[in-house]
C-alpha cells in the first residue's frame, strides 16, 4: 500500500524549471521586468504590478536569507512529518526580497546550495533542546543560507541552515 506524502510538490510544466534547479542545488525566484521586484512562490504573472508571463522570468537567487519567524512543530500526523518531529518550520526573507516558507536544518557546511542527503540534520531532532541551537538560540533576523534536501528520489526541496553572523 502506498502512503500519501504531504511533503512533495506537484511538479507541472510551469514549475518544472524551479524543481530541476533545486535538484542541481540552485534556488530560483521569479523577477518582473516591469517593476523589477522578485517574488516567490512562482507565478506566471507579477503579483505586484500584474505584468504578464512574457515580462516575468526565472532568476537564480543568491541563497542567503534572514529568519522572519519560526515554530517548533512537536506533532504532525500527516506522513511523513510525524517521523520527523520535532522540527522547525520557518518563514525566511531572501536577500532578493521574497519571503518563503521552509524548514530549518543544521547545514554545517555553510556553502550556499549545499546538498543534504536523506532527512538532513534537522534542527528539531535530537539535541535541539527547545529553542537552543548550539547554545546560540534562534532569533528573528539571524542569517541563513539555503541547502537542499532530497525529499524523495529525484525530488529536492530548499531548506535553510543557520550561518555565522555576516
List descriptors.
5-stranded mixed β-barrel; 9 strands; mainly beta; single chain; 166 residues; 3-stranded antiparallel β-sheet; 35% strand
**Quick check: average pLDDT?**
85
Share of helix among residues?
under 10%
Task: Categorize the overall geometry.
Answer: globular
The main sheet comes to:
5 strands, mixed, barrel
Distance between the termini: 48 Å
Alpha plus pi helix count: 1
Beta strands, count: 9
Spell the H/E element sequence: HEEEEEEEEE
Class from helix and strand fractions = mainly beta
Order of strands in the sheet with the most strands?
A: 4-5-6-9-8
Rg, please? 16 Å
Strand content: 25-35%
Residue stretches low in confidence (pLDDT < 50, at least 5 long) are 117-131
Please describe what this structure looks like.
This protein is mostly beta strands. The protein is about 5% helix and about 35% strand. It contains 1 helix and 9 strands. The chain has one helix at about 15-25; strands spanning about 30, 40, 55-60, 65-75, 85-95, 100-105, 115, 145-150, 155-160. A 5-stranded mixed β-barrel has the order 4-5-6-9-8. The protein has a 3-stranded antiparallel β-sheet with strand order 2-1-3. Strand 1 and strand 2 form a beta hairpin. The longest helix is centred in the first third of the chain and has 8 residues, at about 15-25. The protein is globular and about 45 Å long. The N and C termini lie far apart (about 50 Å). The model is unreliable at about 115-130 (pLDDT under 50).
